[in-house]
Amino acid sequence: MAGAALYLVRTAPGDAFSGAAFWIVLATILVGTELSVTIGIFAAVGRFPDLHQRWMLLSYGFLMTVPLLRLERGALPWFLPGRSMEDVNRVAIMHLGSVVA
Predict the structure, then answer these.
(1) Helix (H) or strand (E) holding 48
(2) Is the C or the N end of the chain the one with fewer CB within 10 Å?
(3) What is the distance of C-alpha 10 from the center of its chain?
């Protein structure tokens, strides 16, 4: 996530890899991961194992979106022939967003 933070700081939303949608989603994953890990650590220190487990599961969900997005970006063009990568990214983002939710 440190690499994602560095990328977001150095890149304007319009200049992002696949447009502003990619930048926004990456920022959401970054903030969600950082918050869930931080709150999960505080829950563990405060001896709330159930809360700690829930926050860590959410963190895992955020972190798994990145490798799953790469897999989907490789597979979806076969299922959506003739679509731009921006369209493929939108479909992948919507699917993975629903998985995290």
Answers:
(1) none
(2) C
(3) 18
